[in-house]
């Protein structure tokens, strides 16, 4: 199954284990070279609980290196980092090790993300994909976190810090302004590092940015540096 270090993928693995055991269970995880070290702590703890050693695949680059190589900054709609650092290494491993005729791929999205099911199924063809957390009983994120605690696991710390996903240390190009503002508040060092990377790319590629904003019906790049400048302004009276 596609293991990510997220709580949904852990809950998925627990359901797969309950139904099929672990003899043929593989926890396949892609290293983006940008994860919170605590994600790897959780992967180690949770895979020990499941009784399965994870299989880690990696392209070797970070998201920023992918953007520089592609001459394209990822954004909420197009994320080449996900393609090159997650999908391609995982597919290469599957091609070499998993016959689609007798392999089922499990993905950890839940019932609140059902709209993604068709695209994921299409993307992973010819493997058959299943989504155990879309089945009943439906659990929300807090229930999955509580479940992990009840199993004696310490959940990934990114959730405690107010992030809804445990990926790329809270520095995700798919996130919207709200998450970037949150990152600036709780981890300004990581925000500033991302801002510096974005500025480097802007120096090479021109007026591009991860975020966009619309003004009078026109879409403009919104650099992290500008978002930070605005966040420092006194808030306007309502
Ligand atoms: S979590 Fe976000 S930044 Fe990281 S690889 Fe996926 S899309 Fe890219």
From TrEMBL:
Source superkingdom: Bacteria
Cross-referenced Gene3D superfamilies: HUPs
Designated name of the protein: Phosphoadenosine phosphosulphate reductase domain-containing protein
Source organism phylogeny: Bacteria, Bacillati, Actinomycetota, Actinomycetes, Micromonosporales
